[in-house]
Design goal:
The structure is a homodimer of 199-residue chains.
Chain A (H helix, E strand, L loop, with lengths): L18 H16 L8 H8 L3 H7 L3 H14 L11 H11 L3 H16 L4 H26 L9 H21 L5 H12 L4
Helix pairs in contact in A: 1-4, 2-3, 4-6, 5-8, 5-9, 6-7, 6-8, 7-8, 8-9
Chain A binds a DNA duplex (18 and 18 nucleotides) through helix 3.
DNA sequence: GTCTATACTTTGATAGAC
DNA sequence: GTCTATCAAAGTATAGAC
């Protein structure tokens, strides 16, 4: 495998082109998306808001989709990792509470995810496929442990619970974006109650 | 209120322009989307597949978004209504089993939903906001009844369960589109198990 | 290595002919 | 009611300045 091959979030192998400048662009792009989402964010608008030409952006990112995925991935990475929480309902609640402060990034996530469904392949498709695989695996593993410890009901398969946790989080965020009256955190807590063993 | 005002799925009031031809276009458009989703479906591609000019499509639909929303709404309406099922986990499983045969329309749904999140207003935004409100209300009502009948555990609020059902269905469909190995129906059945009272 | 300038192609949308 | 012609904006690609 070549060292210059791209990975899913657009980084290059051993010879990144302009790591520092690239990071700077990424940081400023996140600021642009944080409030207002990806609404009407053409490559040219983003470039204008950052203060460069749209062609300069394409010097660091091969396409608009790659830039957007990199922005989301970078924003996700820069989150404080959950404070000593094992993957499960608590980490999802933690993420939800954080996300209510950055609706633009939540919108960006949903938009990129939907766009990735339409593509046969591409950066977005690979990114989200790997993301879901990784999430399901780690949550399943964690839930299985919690089942053995009596913290989670063990009469249902952990794989299903993991997929349900992720699905519920994603789906609830969408409902919340359309109607902030939907209680994101409280509804997730109810899901947590469903997971607890029958006393 | 004017009779010519559009409703959310693009129908007009008392003077529809070309109802028959419009339906014909809608039907053929559904066929186009059924297999391959909205992937690369520009207005011109759709028009070409149907056999008209792209301007002709815009004669019946004010915009691309309105056409797509109308296509999805029409496809949804033409489904056989659930056979005597009250809104709840069973109707979601019924819908999921149907959707596995028409992945293109599921993709279209997710795409339109994500696009509606980015718009301040517009046809899509209104359509999905009303759709979720209506679904949550009818499912909540139905679940509350089933709680009284002892079919659903009553130690959690029915409103939360309704939102969770919808969210889980939407989220699982996305995971399933990215990885058909995800058991759509079986995972929903597990959610159904979580809803049942503790024997 | 970094970026501007520029041009190519496709898109959604509009105007007006028939 | 449907077409052709046309538009502005978009994503993308390339050439070359510094």
């Amino acid at each position: 495998m070549s060292q210059d091959e791209d990975d899913v979030i657009g980084r290059r192998g051993s010879r990144p082109k302009g790591v520092a400048r690239r990071q700077e662009i990424l940081d400023r792009a996140i600021e642009v998306f944080r409030e207002r989402g990806a609404s009407g964010t053409s490559l040219r608008k983003i470039a204008e808001a950052i203060g460069v030409s749209h062609a300069a952006l394409l010097h660091y990112f091969d396409s608009r989709e790659q830039l957007l995925v990199a922005v989301y991935a970078h924003a996700e990475q820069s989150h404080d990792d959950p404070p000593e929480l094992r993957p499960g309902i608590d980490t999802m609640i933690h993420a939800a509470r954080r996300n209510v402060g950055i609706p633009g990034l939540v919108t960006l996530y949903s938009t990129l995810l939907a766009a990735s469904l339409e593509a046969e392949d591409g950066v977005g498709r690979d990114f989200f496929t790997l993301r879901f695989e990784g999430l399901r695996r780690s949550i399943t593993e964690s839930l299985r442990l919690q089942q053995r410890e009596g913290l989670v009901r063990d009469d249902v398969p952990a794989e299903h619970l993991a997929a349900l946790l992720i699905a519920a989080s994603d789906g609830l965020q969408i409902q919340w974006l359309l109607d902030p009256g939907v209680g994101l955190e409280s509804t997730l807590r109810t899901l947590g109650a469903l997971l607890r063993p029958r006393a």
